[in-house]
């Protein structure tokens, strides 16, 4: 007897599963509010060099002081990072005669003045992360994703070793602690360290939530539950836009997105440990207790009859299902590459995860590049993800996981590439293409979570998810740094995102199909 058969005897998909999935959706909402927080936490408002007061400026307006102190761009706007060595008073009479001699221009020497009409403060304005220090601003997101990368390895192993629930609670508690410490940062170094540690903790939440829910769901409802859970990521996207719109000060914004971790921590005490994991680790009594609880809530009275004979028979079945292990045998990340089929799955799925995350965060962190208000862009990017997920619910059940994964990622890359060749003046068209690309990117992300959880056996599922999330977070860490390539060629970041998405999408064709297949329990089921 397989676990799916036993799960059907306890009610298959009933009130027990619905309640578990509902509770697991709470931390899922909180994830994008932290993963995409960089858009608002590190937003850089318009700015110019601070100009020291001079007696000659007494009778001049601020506009006139800027005119004679700061050179202009060809489009007439003031430069953000340069100022004149000496005031150019002749510009008061003819402002079009911009000096062409660069020897009278210098970098900002007295700091910067920021436009506070949109943001009260961000980390950019707090520590002047502009101009020559612009790289440090983008590096904040990279530090966070480096933490997420480390966390994927750590929590992937720990959740297979010590259980899903315990590690999920630990990661939520650590997320709340480090998030609050980030909000209290008094220096850039402190912020970089605490954001990295927050990334480590949140990686555990991202890694464990979906498999924990999936392992309590029967084969028939696996796709539905996977996509339902991922829909709450999109809700979190939209909530981030609203929270950021209401909270314009970066310290309090961090507090606002960290607080829900505590609520999730409290609610998750009710969620049981995965019975699959308990059985795979020979914890039969605990698994039996949770299965009885499941059957009782689902109204399966025949399963919960408390007679010694029935109880003995049920535990005997569970004991037989427990994964056989050789003395001293243990599973680790190395196990993902020991056997040929599993090795191929690991290499290909790792590449796909890298491409999905690299293109997704490349688009998600470019909110101002399509001609829309950044709050509106964030909200629209969240809305478009919901119909994309509904579309994937149909596609993954009709055309399969493999084709859906490959084509959504390839089309994401083509949408990014299309905006490279469409002129900037076609704002509406560029916005439509960008929103379509964002929807396809989220569709690829939705599919890869579901697909990967079905590719790996129970004894290695969290190790597999940890490894693939590790690859994804490398992509997420590199994505914000690619924006700095615009100094080489303005369109180079978009070309890079496009090329990686198309190549990694093509790799998905090499993976096996898992549509309507039982979840594998051991490595022998894969091979």
TrEMBL record:
Protein name, as recorded: Solute carrier family 22 member 7
Domain Major facilitator superfamily (MFS) profile: 87-515
Family indicated by similarity: Belongs to the major facilitator (TC 2.A.1) superfamily. Organic cation transporter (TC 2.A.1.19) family.
Membrane-traversing stretches: 139-159, 166-186, 192-212, 224-246, 252-271, 345-363, 375-395
Lineage top rank: taxon: Eukaryota
Name of the gene: Slc22a7
Topology versus the membrane: Multi-pass membrane protein
An example Gene Ontology molecular-function term: prostaglandin transmembrane transporter activity
Source organism: Pampusana beccarii
Keyword Ribosomal protein: no
UniProt keywords, alphabetically: Cell membrane, Ion transport, Membrane, Transmembrane, Transmembrane helix, Transport
InterPro entries, per the entry: MFS_dom, MFS_sugar_transport-like, MFS_trans_sf
GO biological-process terms attached to the record: monoatomic ion transport
Subcellular locations according to the entry: Apical cell membrane; Basolateral cell membrane
CDD domains listed in its UniProt record: MFS_SLC22A7_OAT2 (cd17447)
Cellular component GO terms, alphabetical: apical plasma membrane; basolateral plasma membrane
Organism classification: Eukaryota, Metazoa, Chordata, Craniata, Vertebrata
Predominant location: membrane
Catalytic activity as recorded in UniProt: 2-oxoglutarate(in) = 2-oxoglutarate(out); guanosine(in) = guanosine(out); urate(out) = urate(in); glutarate(in) = glutarate(out)
